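Supplementary Note 3. Input sequence used for the single-chain structure prediction.
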Amino acid sequence: MSAIGAALGLALLVLLAVTVFALGTMVQRALQSGDDVDPYEGVPGTTATTGITSTSTPSGQTGSSTSESVRVVRPQAASASSVLKATASNSYRATNLLDGDVTTAWNEGAEGPGAGEWVLFEFLEPVVLSRIDLANGYQKDADRFLGNARVRSLKVEYSSGSTQLVDLLDTEEFQSIKTTRSVVEWVKLTVVSVYPDYEWDDAALSEVRFFAVTD
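The predicted structure, written as discrete structure tokens, is reproduced below.
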């Protein structure tokens, strides 16, 4: 009986050690992947303050290598110059850019590859934006990303009257635009040009996220 008890005790100790190791691994992975957490998930309006490190980006007018305290702000409304007609399984409305899901997208619905088409974001209150992160193209899957037109040049207009012309990379990675840091109530993104070699001439963006300077 004592031998059986000892064996059971040893088995319980091994099980406990494995459980502790697994929990430690899960915590470590969660900490390492913190930057991948959707900052908009379940949070309407303006979100809580968080610390973000800006990243380098494709255009000379974008990006930053410094760290600062910023807060994520979610626009209260998004509208577009045109929207591709929805199908039974997919919609392409402007609000898809704010849903925290890169597999949904805004696809413009005008004739041609989308030059001049725009999407407008309105904030609940005036903010000073630090940067804008966006996911280019339609990222539902590889075929759609390569098949739809991806934005090459983008005009960024602010309610303050300032504008920027930025170049985007032809990649599925998030890209950061360093803003003019003026007080704004809305931001308008207009497609200037797209990358060649697409199958469907519906320019698309999959996600846009705004980061404001903290007070």
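The CA atoms of residues 15 and 104 lie 42 Å apart. The longest helix spans residues 2-32.
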